[in-house]
Amino acid sequence: MSDWINYYEDNKQTALMRINNMALSTGYSRELNCWVNKYLDPFSVARAISEERKENLDPFSRIRMEAEKDLEFTVLRANNRDRRNGEIIFFESNLLLMFNLMLKHIRTA
């Protein structure tokens, strides 16, 4: 495996460990885990881009919009206690940043 794939796999595993160690509601934690496994997995994202290329001229924009929308829907699963924690809001923005960096890397590879 190339170094960049290992890097993004490590990001994914770190995000999953962080989610499991945070005091989050069960539903929200489960949804975040699903989001991370779908959008921070370089193989999953590459497959999605490959499939999207058949239907869309700019698959990267489409995948980016889906990831943002899915993260917004994931946030809807959070309860009041989850949203009071400022750390989770920062973490969510970092998840999106990691996704965008990986997407940029896939695009240039």
UniProtKB/TrEMBL annotation:
Superkingdom of this entry's organism? Archaea
Q: What is this protein called?
A: Uncharacterized protein
